[in-house]
Amino acid sequence: MPTHPQEHAAPRRATRRRVLLGGLGAAGAAGASGLTTSCSPARDTGGSATGSGSSAAPVVPTGEAVDADEALVTEVLAAIAATRALVVAVRRRQPALADDLVALVRAHAAHGRELGDLPAPADRPVPARTAAAARAQVVTAEQGLQDLVADATAAARSGTLAAVLASVTASLAQHRTLLEAAS
Questions:
Q1: What is the pLDDT of residues 36-51, one digit of tens each?
Q2: Domains in the chain, start-ordered, CATH in brackets?
């Protein structure tokens, strides 16, 4: 009989953010490859972008590298939340664009889930008054987000985080290109 209740407790699972910052190698790469397919505007499965099927316990590094990557993830999540808030506001104000933007809203949500959790946006965005101007506003915001995530990819200390951020960058580029082509 155990003397402490924790002796038979299941091991604690690492949070999604810690897993990304910890560099899981093949398991993390599998999660990153799932992110690109789940964010495809051509095939939205509605499923989670997570899950590698691996039961291996991640090694979670500490120190400067984790702190630097944690700051990157926080910055990227805030930028995704702000851009997503704009896209949602444009969908509400410009119903003619709603169908063109639904996949983008879903992609932002999937990216947020993959990286941790999206925070509440810092500001309430004001969409442009015309559909053409609102589309241009979204394209500009998406380009800025794509640039920020690409920079974060290059700065990431964890290979797993870099792979996930590269996948997010590719997804954003794909969605932005399709949005530009639809105008």
A1: 434 444 433 333 334 4
A2: 14-40+64-181 (1.20.1260)
pTM: 0.70
Of 119, 33, 128, nearest to 80 by C-alpha is 119
For residue 135, give the H/E element and its range: helix 131-155
Q: pLDDT by residue (tens digit) across 125-138?
A: 999 999 999 999 99
